[in-house]
């Protein structure tokens, strides 16, 4: 019998779906030693999630991943279809799919397999240090509680079992891929896989891994969650939905826009126009769900789903020759009672929240969970921040999960409900009510309503040590992601979105809205800040190793409100455009809120509610969320903020 290999690694990620791959991406950008395993021999190829929300697109862009935006179908309009007084469906309204002005992106759609491909390619291009290892699953977990307080210790031990491809590939039936190959809507087979591989006497293909952090990104049936004894709270509903990804042949006029169709008595249908002529149809399967009792979803065929869709969309015709994927599912709206154990074992994604897919949230929120977690683990592992910051994960993301389930309940009920016949029909859902909830939900659905509460990383008001003054940037909500407007590069006149200056690379940022620095008084204040930031006592020197670049831990960016032509970059203090012996001056740190030559004026001061003379410093976390707003000369508040969690060099 072969000996069992033992090794150490900083992070083990279980599950290579969107949540796990996002986390692996963060950790690879931060050069953290991590492994990611998945029990399936391959990524998903078709079906499942397809909606990408604004915030997810901003996040992907911050890693330089722009392939979703380029390859996807951009969904710009929603049409509402409802029965008229004769029961015939009519278009009753149109509205933008994403409210304007929310983000530089709008909702777009592309199947989840492509997203996973982009993550995998990106990991490869980004040093190839973290690769998804398949098919492997964890079979035992032990936690040494005596080591939890020591950030250098490896308190977690997992036994990993290597499977054969055969063992790890569930039966997929025949014909069209039914998408249940790796889905949160099927029964779990993890225990069966562990048992059958043990029975097959394949000892020797196990290994023991000691790790600092274990992250369960292993989906709705999470094995990691079960080991921790955490519970999912919530309920299953009886409503059965079918999903078809087809190339439709139809005379329905709005097949290339997102449509919410409520028929008089045949149920509801959602149309999602996708890439490559594909259209996704979400259909309420009335016949199947009627009659009470449990329904065997595996017996649902694409033909049944199509027949249900045809009834809803009549008098228009609908058929197809080409079906890429289908599934039938029942909605379960549930959220985990906890998301971490002692800030060493974490859960993210569907392991924490499951709900209906129609609002296009699961993949997005899953990616955003691990986007929140990745940099925190990275900074702790790199010895830059204390373990304390890891507590903010539960505080920040559990609330988002609860909000998500509440949103989904509202949205699903509305969508599954019967349309009102007229104003006196109190049990039916009126079109006005539907549109109101739809509009209210749009900002949430875009991922842009997330507002992290005060904690060690977020200071929302003067707390005595950090003298936060929110009114200095009255339209920059602290705790929310920093919005984007164009600013003009001082050195080369190039207009650029502010968010593009905030790549996901683990750095905190001080965005100095310096005011009109062509005014000598305001310039003197800015110069004094520059002297402080260059000094040994300043926050940059306190947390940046001497051998590292000055901007590698905290980056200072300036956005001034002077006319660009009235400012000379070379005259500014070095802290604002650091000099490197081999690379010269840094020309990408100072920007003007000014008219650009070809792309107009971003008006960032106005849009952020910042006075053009008074200015302020906006402290931004590595994930682009606003941490605090302080006065330009309030260096003591900067010190107090970072002293809460950063480790001095
Ligand atoms: P998963 O994608 O489930 O990934 C978990 C991974 O862990 C899998 O690769 C699995 O093989 C692996 N794994 C599980 N157990 C183990 C184990 N014990 N050991 C090792 N590996 C393990 N979301 C949207 O945002 N927009 C949409 O439009 C949308 N539409 C959807 C449509 C349908 C029909 C369905 C079913 C879902 C849809 N979703 C949508 C939801 C979305 O697919 C999920 O929310 C998302 O995939 C969750 O990502 P995850 O990484 O948390 O989990």
TrEMBL record:
It comes from the Eukaryota. Keywords: FAD, Flavoprotein, Oxidoreductase. Residues 8-407 form the FAD-binding domain. Residues 450-648 form the Phenol hydroxylase-like C-terminal dimerisation domain. It holds the Pfam family Phe_hydrox_dim. GO terms for molecular function: FAD binding; oxidoreductase activity, acting on paired donors, with incorporation or reduction of molecular oxygen, NAD(P)H as one donor, and incorporation of one atom of oxygen. InterPro entries: FAD-bd, FAD/NAD-bd_sf, Phe_hydrox_C_dim_dom, PHOX_C_sf, RIFMO-like, Thioredoxin-like_sf. Belongs to the PheA/TfdB FAD monooxygenase family. This is Phenol 2-monooxygenase. It comes from Orbilia brochopaga.
């Amino acid at each position: 019998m072969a000996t069992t290999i033992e090794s150490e690694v900083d992070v083990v990620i279980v599950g290579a779906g969107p949540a796990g791959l996002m986390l692996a991406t963060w950790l690879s950008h931060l050069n953290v030693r991590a492994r990611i395993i998945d029990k399936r021999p391959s990524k998903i190829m078709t079906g499942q999630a397809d909606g990408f929300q604004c915030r997810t697109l901003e996040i992907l862009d911050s890693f330089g991943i722009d392939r979703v935006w380029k390859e996807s179908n951009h969904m710009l309009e929603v049409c509402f279809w409802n029965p008229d007084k004769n029961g015939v469906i009519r278009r009753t309204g149109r509205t933008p799919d994403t409210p304007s002005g929310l983000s530089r992106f709008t909702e777009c759609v592309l199947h989840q397999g492509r997203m996973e491909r982009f993550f995998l390619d990106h990991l490869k291009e980004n040093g190839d240090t973290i690769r998804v290892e398949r098919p492997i699953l964890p079979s035992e977990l032990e936690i040494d509680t005596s080591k939890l307080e020591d950030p250098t210790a490896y308190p977690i031990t997992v036994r990993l079992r290597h499977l054969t491809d055969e063992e790890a590939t569930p039966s997929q039936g025949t014909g069209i891929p039914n998408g249940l190959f790796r889905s949160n809507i099927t029964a779990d087979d993890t225990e069966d896989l562990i048992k059958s591989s043990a029975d097959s006497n394949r000892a020797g293909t196990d290994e023991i891994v000691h790790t600092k952090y274990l992250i369960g990104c292993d989906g709705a049936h999470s094995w990691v969650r079960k080991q921790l004894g955490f519970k999912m709270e919530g309920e299953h509903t009886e409503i059965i939905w079918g999903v078809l990804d087809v190339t439709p042949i139809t005379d329905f006029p709005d097949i290339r826009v997102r449509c919410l169709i409520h028929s008089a008595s045949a149920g509801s249908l959602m149309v999602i126009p996708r890439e490559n002529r594909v259209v996704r149809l979400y259909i309420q399967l009335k016949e199947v769900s009627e009659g009470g009792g449990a329904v065997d979803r595996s017996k649902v065929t694409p033909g049944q789903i199509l027949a249900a869709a045809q009834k809803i969309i009549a008098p228009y015709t609908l058929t197809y020759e080409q079906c890429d994927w289908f599934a039938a599912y029942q909605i379960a709206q549930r959220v985990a009672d906890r998301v971490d154990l002692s800030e060493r074992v974490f859960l993210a994604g569907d392991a924490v929240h499951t709900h209906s897919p129609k609002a296009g949230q699961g993949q997005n929120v899953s990616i955003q969970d691990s986007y929140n977690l990745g940099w925190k683990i990275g900074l702790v592992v790199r010895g830059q921040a204390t373990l304390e910051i890891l507590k903010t994960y539960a505080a920040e993301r559990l609330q988002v999960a609860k909000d998500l389930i509440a949103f989904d309940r509202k949205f699903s009920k509305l969508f599954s409900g019967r349309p009102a016949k007229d104003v006196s029909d109190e049990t039916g859902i009126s079109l006005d009510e539907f549109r109101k909830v739809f509009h209210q939900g749009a900002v949430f659905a875009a991922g842009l309503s997330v507002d992290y509460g005060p904690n060690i990383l977020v200071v929302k008001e003067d707390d005595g040590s950090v003298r936060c003054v929110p009114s200095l940037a009255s339209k920059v909500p602290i705790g929310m992601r920093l919005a984007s407007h164009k600013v003009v590069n001082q050195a080369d006149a190039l207009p650029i979105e502010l968010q593009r200056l905030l790549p996901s690379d683990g750095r905190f940022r001080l965005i100095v809205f310096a005011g009109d620095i062509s005014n000598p008084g305001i310039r003197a204040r800015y110069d004094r800040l520059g002297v402080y930031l260059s000094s040994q006592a300043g926050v940059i020197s306190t947390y940046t190793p001497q051998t590292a670049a000055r901007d590698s831990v905290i980056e200072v960016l300036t956005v001034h409100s002077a006319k660009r032509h009235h400012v000379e970059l070379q005259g500014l203090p070095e802290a604002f455009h650091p000099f490197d012996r081999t690379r010269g001056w840094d020309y990408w740190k100072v920007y003007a809120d000014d008219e650009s030559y070809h792309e107009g004026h971003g008006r960032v001061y106005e849009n952020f509610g910042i006075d053009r003379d008074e200015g302020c410093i906006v402290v931004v976390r590595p994930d682009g969320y606003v941490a605090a707003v302080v006065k330009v000369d309030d260096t003591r508040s900067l010190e107090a903020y970072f002293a809460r969690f950063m480790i001095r060099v």
